[in-house]
Task: structure prediction
Amino acid sequence: MLNNFPLWPEQASTMARNVDALYIFLLIVTGMMALLIFICLIYFAARFRYRAGVPAEQIEGSHALEITWSIIPFLIFMVIFAWGAVVFFKERTPPADATEVYVVAKQWMWKLEHAEGQREINELHVPVGRDVRLIMTSQDVIHSFYVPAFRLKQDVLPGRYTVEWFRATKPGVYHLFCAEYCGTQHSGMVGSIVVLEPAQYEAWMNGGSTGPLSATGEKIFAELGCSTCHRSDAQGRGPNLQGVFGKPVQLEDGRTVTADENYLRECILDPGARRVKGFQPLMPTFQGLVSEEQVNALVAYIKSISQAPPGEPAKASASTATPKAKPNGSQVQ
Amino acid sequence: MPDSSSATGLHTEEHNPALLHHFADPEQQRDAASLGMWVFLGTEIMFFGGLFCAYLVYRRWYFGDFAAASGTISMAYGATNTAVLICSSLTVVLAVWAAQTARRTLLITSLILTMLLGLVFLGIKGIEYREKFTEHHVPGASFRFDQAIPGHPGQYANPRHAQIFFSLYFVMTGLHALHMIIGLGIFLWLLTMAWKGRFTPEWHTPVEMGGLYWHFVDIVWIYLFPLLYLIDRHP
Amino acid sequence: MSMPTAIPQPVEREDYLNTKYGVWSWLLTTDHKRIALLYLLSITFFFFIGGFFALLIRLELLTPAGDLVQADTYNKLFTMHGMVMVFFFLIPSIPATLGNFLVPLMIGAKDLAFPRINLLSWYLYIIAGVMMLHCMLTGGVDTGWTFYAPFSTNFTNTKIVEAGLAIFVVGFSSILTGLNFVVTIHRMRAPGMTWSRLPLFIWAHYATSIIQLLGTPVVAVTIVLVAAERALHLGIFDPRLGGDPLLFQHLFWFYSHPAVYIMILPSMGVVTEIIACFSRKRIFGYSFVAFSSIAIAVFGFLVWAHHMFVAGMSVYAALVFSLLSYAVAIPSAIKVFNWTATLYKGSIRYDAPMLYAFGFLGLFTIGGLTGLFLAALGIDVHVTDTYFVVAHFHYIMVGGAVMGYLGGMHFWWPKISGKLYPEGWARLAALIVFIGFNLTFFPQFVLGYMGMPRRYYDYSHMPEFQILNVLSTAGATVLGVGYLLPMVYFLWSMRYGKPASDNPWNAAGLEWKTASPPPTFNFDEEPVVTWEAYNYEELDAPHSQEVPVAR
Result:
């Protein structure tokens, strides 16, 4: 028990350093404020203890003091707020070319699927130095994907995607926790993030996969008959999905939305909600007919057909491997 | 021991002397009662406010589906109920005035009329609920909804979102009806007291407080009616 | 005559305790002082129930493996610990006991504005308590006290509706208390008792009551929606129907954040009174402290979503709530500075109430400062839903609110019971509580930053967390002893304690100008106030007379 007595979590991601820096700043600032108050308390308590014949001095107050000790803490708080906000923005803004991993949480396990097709349960293998973007949803209740060593956490909700990202900086195995109470085995919903050197990661990846996620999606797309209406010419009864991901879409009710993962998911499960302008409300809903993993695969496929063909620079929005490209380390930015 | 006269010699009521004893004078007692009732109504506003919040969020997201669902509840019944409640607020005002001016008959009549109108309201609500039941619009396993979105022929509303409308409809109007029933209980008590001649121009605080409560229940309905019944209706 | 549930007194003088004996004279009382004692018994009972659950939790966490209780049991334990402590102890604690007892006395009134509603609020508390006990004994709830949807609406098999109903009823009790206080403070102040002469205890309770009135109904309707969803399969929060689980969180936290101010504001009021008395000085910056109470109440309603920074809200919403959360910290900081400044050039005594006040100042400062960490978005992402949050709120609620509560109980015990508690034991208990508390909860800050999540009954994957957990459990046992001691000696003092004079502390305030214990209608004649609050200069003047009160 005493051998292993750490007091600080490892730093294993780029964000960890930012978060720790702010934390240390806060420790110092609040430590100083606490020390100041405690010193005053102890000193006053001792210096002004009751002595016979020495009455207390009635002091009504001091506007100057009140203003001072309102404004100075306020300014300090604003600094903390701003710094915290900056760190938060970074935490919430995935880099453009991040590799994507789809996560499905359920009571009480994590199911992960790499864009290249590898599936994992309760474990996530990633290479050092690569930006990884997690696209997460839950099959049942709210969970939360928490990796203390990366200082990152994001609730995983049923019915929609939430996103978080990281770049690991140190090979090793790090705890993955569920951080939103989700029932009986909430504390059993624990796993590992396995960060490997790029070469080892390649080796691991080539050790068996069912093909890229987008290929699975392409199959499902055909099996479910989506291509009947969503043709790649202008004749289809549904919008052409080539190149749609990440682009603005004009809706029937006049609004414009960006076709992101959540929009694509909604179109599959609730097609009438935000219908594309100029198309009839003909698409049936697939709620109950497709699993979360299948939805993930379809979304991955639609993203893949928004890519430039191999050989041209990838478009800004996504960088899943297309079905034709071979996964290789040099793809990494 | 019962305190039957104050310094001015007026008859200051009170079947319960303890009630007056901790107050300095009748004004303070009446002011306290009045402030208390207004504060209580403030809490009721917050109570219904949470529901209105949930309603507004979903209405914004699923406007078409809500419009379709709203189209299936009877505007005629709703409007009638609105008229009924407004009339009942009039009878409440009459009751208060009657108490203030020692008109016992008018007071009793107004109280009875108010209660009758309240019962009419509840009766119509009952008819509406039954209608929803037979149309399978009650949320749950047997919920079914096949209406088109108004103004978009051929496009059917999402039944799941329509179910959310009806969930809110039943909870909101149900809680309102519950408050109505409580109001009827209060007015029954007021009627009993009025019958026994307990109210005088000097003291009729329960009538005023009961009236405030009834007006509040009325106002909640005035908000509920357009929000629930009149989504996207066109002449 | 039937025998004493009241305290045996040499019957020279009639007071509220000996005016009538018998169970029914208590169960049907409308005397705010007796109702306060009824509440005192009830909330103490629930405090020990909640504390018992806490003990089991800490015992389980001694070892990494889940070996004391099963997972489901543990989940019920932390849920019930939270529900009981929040709704049945902390929220009523000071307002329903000290508030009920002192508000009329402090403003010179004979009773609260609505004595029968006061009694009703106690009965509602009891009814809710019985429901909650029944719920716990027949299976309990396992959602966490926050009962998030959709787990609570669609997935758990435990008794949500019953627990929800119990909380609904106790919430109504809380609303009625708040209503009584607001009307009383507005309408029943004695002649000459202007707003600026009110003790800051009253200002604190006024602000608390505003929160109770405006916030509790929202959680009440949220409970109604959850219960309806479970019982009637509605689907308002069910994503499969297009419902939004985040809507639940917004509605829930809209009350539950202000609720924490309900829990701390009265304690701040108590501490203010104690510091003034034991420094023999008027509080430094009276108006600032008064308005800070109101500011906390107002701002407290604007920050709820800082519980939801990682819940799936937009970045911009998160920014707004983070900014506002720093704003709400300012009035609390102002109060801490004013209390500290009050000590300056005071004449300080270290009686037990003052020791609790010092404890409050230290622990509330730490708890409040750690709130700054949580309000910082970048850090909150890492520490939310970990033991860091658990430590933060226990520092405020236990280190703050409970210390204030105990300090107040000691300060006003002579007034309430007419007896003096044993000072030596009281100081010892204060020390034990302070030490035990820090040992229990400080390690949890470290655990939280290291990443130990909340609500984990088994941490066998992370054995490195064990030593800090062991420290925490050790502290909890010490803390438990510290809480038991006052129980014992307060009871002892009721029989064997020295009789107290009207004003054993020579304190300012109208409550000290009447007998200990007070007569049923508080004052023999209505007081007329012609002096400012905290008139310690007059009280301590050599050969001082009591400032004349119309008697």
Observations:
- The CA atoms of residues 9 and 148 of chain A lie 7 Å apart.
- Chain A is about 35% helix and 20% strand.
